[in-house]
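# nightly structure sweep
# worker-07 picked up a monomer target from the shared queue
# config: single-sequence mode, recycle default, output format = structure tokens
# input follows
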Amino acid sequence: MVEDGASAVSSLVKPKDFLSLLWESLREQFNNPTSIPTHSCPLSPDLIRNEVECLKADFNRRIKEVLFNSLFSAYYVAFLPLCFVKSTQYYDMRWSCEHLIMVWINAFVMLTTQLLPPKYCDLLHRSAAHLGKWQKLEHGSYSNAPQHIWSENTIWPQGVLVRRSRCLYKAVGPYNVAVPSDVSHARFYFLFHRPLRLLNLLILIEGSVVCYQLYSLLRSEKWNHTLSMALILFCNYYVLFKLLRDRIVLGRAYSYPLNNYGLKAH
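# output follows
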């Protein structure tokens, strides 16, 4: 009786195998994708700055997730197997290091395209357009031009001159509600005021990886190197195709000037 109860309990707490856990993780990931924040085009400068702060925190969280998961994948796929190699066995150290770097870069680009889709990048671009940017000017410049005292409750138009903390600033963006001395606001505007900047960077990285892998494939002499490189190339072809497709579509969409972001400078 006791043995039957123990066997029943052990069957209930039996650990799942790796494939079952992997399947559950993939199913949960596809059924519950990462939600994208909404953009409501706020009319208040305080609401715009608060939205930017929330988007900065969300973007940093996504980048940390990309870095962690890409390093995690490279560690288990390319580095950990080397730790179990016996001292009597030989393996190509240069090829192993190259394979480790390629796996990490490929995982980084794939995760970035998944966690930073075009819709999310467009959201960051619109928020950066609302935020604006200030350019610090030297003392004595624009001395004859009209200058204003910066106010946090004002949406400043492009080209206006304001003073804050004894410094002179010039409005750069079409609408400007950023704090002139806040470096994080200037960094946010620099990264996202051009909607295709991040996509172009990913295309450059992925294109460089594909070209290098094609070169390595042509000069490889061992069958295992050729097979490994060919399998990785098939994945990279799809990622590069997806990036180029998004670049062409978004490039045509953003080619039409849209100067009205739902704000009025006053």
